[in-house]
Hints:
Layout: E1 2-11, E2 14-24, E3 28-33, H1 40-47, E4 55-60, E5 63-64, H2 69-75, E6 76-79, H3 91-101, H4 107-117, H5 133-145, E7 151-155, H6 163-177, E8 181-185, H7 189-195, E9 198-203, E10 206-212, H8 213-217, E11 224-229, H9 237-241, E12 246-255, E13 258-265, H10 270-279, E14 284-290, H11 294-305
Parallel strand pairs: 3-8, 3-9, 6-7, 7-8
Antiparallel strand pairs: 1-2, 1-4, 4-5, 9-10, 11-13, 11-14, 12-13
Amino acid sequence: MVVVEKLSKSFGSFQAVHELSFSLPKGGILGFIGPNGAGKTTTMRMLTGYIPPSNGTVSVAGYSVFEESMKVRRIVGYLPETPPLYRELTIGAYLDFVASIRDVENPKVRIGEVMDEVGLSGLENRIIGSLSKGYRQRVGLAQAIIHKPELLILDEPTSGLDPAQVVGIRSFIQRLAASRTVILSTHILSEVEHLCDRVLVINQGKCAAQGDLKEIKKRAGGERYRIELQGESKRYIEPLSKISDVESLNLLREDDRGCSIEIFVERDIRSELSTLCAQQTWPLLSLSLYSPSLEEAFLSIVGAEK
């Protein structure tokens, strides 16, 4: 669906994006994340044809963004961080204008469908400037999907919204992804964990990591087991290390209450750990599977890059 090869963009002597490459199949949601100034918005503007690259290529559904720009624009929807709204217009008038420049068939029917889809039914006569940020964001989403795009690019779609509005927009994005490909840029990493199938981390204009959530979280150590026992750790380290497939052990804590040990292993060993504790009469306090958050993985990746 989307193929990006060695995409670069320079503004004078400053290189905002440097040889960025990734591919995205049709369907699903890609989480596009990185620190401020990493090059996310610049990349998304190049994907939409809004600005030209300095080097590299981008194709969407087989069309070159830079050589077949009009064909690409017909199949791409874009919601920038600040939606392109005319505040003096009503919602209905604004969407009618967007439908006309998008050459939408049966615009009145399609506007009704879109307003219902984003939760704006019955509000077509409301002035956009009088709307809350959450409702303005809905109008922005409506203009991005009114032409039924195959690729939808969303830049910080939940920025500044209250928790209830965030839940509503998240649910809407999930529904959208059922019939199209979505690229989602956000600083809310829990949002990426909830919504995205794949993640691309960009830092200083370069791809720092990409893959599914499990692959990204491996950069922070991946899943591991945590066992808490009474007594000194030296009693337990050697027997635990002899469990098959254990990659490494990490002593997290040792004090008067006992010790906490982290076990890195690819398979589920909880049953074996329980059996071992019973056989050795170890005083087991707790046993749990720990999965690092995307935030931990992100900090690990960005920190390593720095």
